[in-house]
Amino acid sequence: MFRPVPTRPDLVGLEHELLGQWRERGTFAKLRAQNAGGPRWSFLDGPITANNPMGVHHAWGRTYKDLFQRFHAMLGADQRWQNGFDCQGLWVEVNVERDLGFTSKRDIEAFGIAEFVSLCKQRVLTYAARQTEQSTRLGMWMDWDDPDELRRLRDALAADPGQVVTIQGPNGPLTDTAEMLVGRLGHPELGGSYYTFSNENNDLIWGFLAECHRRGWIYKGHDSMPWCPRCGTGLSQMEMNEGYQDREDPGLTVRFPLVDRPGESLLVWTTTPWTLAANVAAAVGENLEYVRIRQGEASYWIGKGTLKQSVVGPFQVVESKPGSELVGWRYAGPFDDLPAVREAFAGGTRDAPDSPYEHRVVAWSEVGEDEGTGIVHIAPGAGAEDFQLGKSLGLPVIGPIDEDGRYYAGFDWLTGREAAAAAEAIVDDLERRGFFYHLAPYTHRYPHCWRCGTPLLFRLVDEWFISMGEVYDQPRETLSKEQLDASLRYQIMEVVDEIRWIPSFGYERELDWLLNMHDWMISKKRYWGLALPIYDCTACGTFDVIGGRGELRERAISGWEAFDGHTPHRPYVDEVAIACPGCGDSVRRIPDVGNPWLDAGIVPFSTLHYREDREHWERWFPADFITESFPGQFRNWFYAMLAMSTVLRRERPFKTIFGYATLFGEDGRPMHKSWGNSIEFDEAAERMGVDVMRWLYTSARPEDNILFGWHAADTARRRLLVLWNAYAFFVTYAKPAGWTPPADGRAPEAHDAATPMDRWILSRVAGLAATAEDRLLDVDPAATARLIDTFIEDLSTWYVRLSRRRFSRNADAADRDAAFSTLHTTLVALARIVAPILPFIADSMYQNLLPEDGGAAPESVHLTRWPTAELARFADPALESAMATARRVVDLARTLRGTAGLRMRQPLARLWLALPGADSAQVEQLLTLIAEEVNVKHIERIDDESSLVDRRVKPLLPKIGKRLGAAIPAVMTAARDGAFELNPDGSVTLGGVTLAPDEVEIQATPRPGTAVAHDEGLVVVIDTELTPTLRAEGDARELQRAIQDLRKDAGLDLDARIELWLEGVPAEVEPHLANVARETLADKLTRGAPAGDPGLPVTVELSGGSVRITLRSLQGGPGVE
RNA sequence: GGGGGAGUAGCCCAGUUGGUCAGAGGCGCCGAGCUUAUACCUCGGAAGUCGGAGGUUCGAGUCCUCCCUCCCCUACCA
User: Fold this and answer.
1) A725 strand B contact, CB < 7 Å
2) Which domains does chain A have, with CATH numbers?
3) What pLDDT, in 10s, does the model give residues A11-49?
4) What SS3 state is found at A330?
5) A689 in the Ramachandran plot: left (φ > 0), alpha (ψ -120 to 50) or beta?
6) CB-strand contact A370/B, under 7 Å
7) Nearest nucleotide, CA A793 to C1'
8) Nearest residue to nucleotide B44 when comparing alpha carbons to its C1'?
């Protein structure tokens, strides 16, 4: 017998109950066993950073991941079910530093790199455990590690990384040091999630880098690059893009006195005063016009087009020259006395190394007049483009700042000062020494460190790159094979062509990124991350890249013992030295760690055991499906995977990529704790329930941002409650009726007593299974949710509402059983269809709807197969179409009632109905249903000849438009006016043109002046005349309704018997009273006022007079039926 | 600066290869109705110069050109 179902479900409680049950019964393990050996469906999880608890935005993507895995499992697919954690990189370091109260890299060095790296690992394990628990709470089925074991490993690592620990793997226990067990997480012998810090992951990246080196694509760049002074490291191009923010800087205009033109100065504008100490040249545009202006005693050179924006106060133009004539002028720099400047200039230029360099004006094509003075301050040591220009001219370079963004020695009073903070002091200094001209705040977009938000500086550094290859100035289709082979970027593009991008604009975006991307900067001057296996010989300049741990052991000439037994991380790996292949000198690894996207990009290889088990890799590569949030990933995870797979295999790492947008707070702003619009995952799960959350996510259009909040959740929950209540309705009536499903748990063959309504809902659910399957196969979850939503609507507001009487107090047992059987079959099918999206509600419904002993049916909805094939026999499209027409008829009738002021409770004598051809026969069987629903006694069909309708011709424009052209307006006017002639052959002549039968549609349209409504040839007319009999019947129903309301107001139970007093019942209503009493469960009915005071009376106005109603509950009174 | 997307009712937005009173859907508002599974549902209503201006066409929300606004991607602008 079914468990009772509350109409207000405790969804959260139900979720916890099922989580416990799945765990106890090992439901997920049963699913995996059941599908083992099935056709593969390869999902590759984009690693979540194990650095904090997961947020509701993660739950969006994880809902997709889980629903597609579950769906494919229902199709019988064998899957890997492997979650991934991203472990290495600066974001973990920053948090560990914060916990320790560190402010700079020196603090880490002093603390000890080994201990620091260990803390990073511990943090990852902490949050991997936490996120595992949260994901499980979301209902996400994966091959999870036991969170307690992760914490045990973490604690062992903290206590002593060298201690020997035993841990249970899928194929038995495994014993190793704590450190090495952590390094082996996710490897086949341990199973579970993959971790990008694992030995295998790091080792394969080494292999990838060695392969790049073999092809000559790895190089060391010396350049002026964006640098975060807090983190003490440079940023790659992909990281730069994350952190552009508006920022106000000082817009400082300074004067550079010209050496050979006494009294005259250049005016130069900069937003970074700290770079003035590194000034080497002033650039002008050769083709721009420059003028000399006079202001009082002073005389300035400035771009003519910049006068308005740059000059302060009145001035006089006294002279004009093209920029080309300014080139070569010498000027006095603002910090020429600094030792660092003197020293740099002493070496002269590349072309004239013997004579000391002096500041001068140079030509630069990039100079413009939109901002500044048209004369650009050039500091090759403190700006990327400045560096390029300086390099091309062979100018000296002054690198003013160190890792922490402080001035080096040699900068006098500036030395040791933070460059960014020195602006004010520099302005004061310049003012004092006569270099100052003007200062105004200036707001612009400026790059910031994406991790810590610090404004970036440009700094001279050596970094390591993978060359992405030339950009050819020609269309991609015209490239020769040689050009292609020489340029990695175009090879990646070819791989991109082979991938299905959803939404489709992703394809263009990725190509656009690939075309414009710079070389991949892979080095980072930090501690926790991939140890770059680059060995750069200081003696001879040769460098080599080691392709794996094995190769390192072979090549090691010292330090191996210090590294052996450790994961490939700093500091231990740094100890190993190899012999330089160039000069034989002993060479150590460069201290840099790797770009973290290398870690995530290698997973199509590392997690599939590319090296250890090629057969396994071939079975699962390429992945069928990945899904991640679009923003950022084109240049991050997608890009890294594409680049690495192209280098290693020159083939696609995944076949389909499904992207989704960004999650914001309900107010449309990013979620921010201090803005009060932030919702934690745990809170959301326990307050709204995860099925509600999953429904909200699944329903969302993936390319649009989600505005997430409690209101949105309420909307989603409302939809689910409708589903729940259809189910609760079934159980409410099936229990007392003693109806039970067939023991085998299978849907019955069509029931003999099945009504058109039964056959309709079964056809609908069969169609739902097929269309939802189709939408999910096509990766369209939002459309799937819409289909389900519409179905729930149909089930609740049409099938259940109209069939209600068949379930309770139905004298016809066969009809009642047909209804139960139909609704049961429908609900079980629906539970299976929603199972991937709503795993909890679905399983709760399914299990409760199972036959008493379970029969042959699987014990959980998640062990069932997708039901399309089983339901196919119920499909009846013609009936569905007819039902749609019937529903439209009901709508039209309701409209007419509203217009005529006739309540639904008032029965009407007749309804006339004209149907367009197609559904006519099918609708015939629905006439009774329509009559009941619109409360009319008879329905009469009317045809074209009826006096109630006119015929109207609707020319089918798409068909005739091309043929008729300019004649169209005349034809349409004729059609509208009804000026047409029907020909015997079915053709129609109008507006002087004859249209073939298939070029027009003949529709019925109401003749003006009748009480009718119409829609696309459907015409409904109601008989508004009320006979006394009809009125009495209407009054009876009105009375009945009033009594029911009173019962509800009195808070009576559904089956409570009552005693009823009625005063003033009109004589015409008398014949109906027995029926009223039956419907309202009134055992005693008295005409007249009650003696005593049983309850508050109400008065209802009937057409025959007003009636006063009083009732009282009869506890356990005798039944009447 | 370059590339892409979007602008349709108070709000979120559908709108196919151009096809005739501009509307699928959701939220909200107003009115009415229905209802002891569903504080739910149904019907109706108000409300829009389809961002602006031209053009192509018998016909443009849809195609073309220019302009305005917003968003995203991208960029070395001091």
Assistant:
1) yes
2) 233-463 (3.90.740.10), 706-875 (1.10.730.10), 903-1022 (no CATH), 1028-1114 (3.30.2320)
3) 999 999 999 999 999 999 999 999 999 999 999 999 999
4) strand
5) left
6) yes
7) B41
8) A895
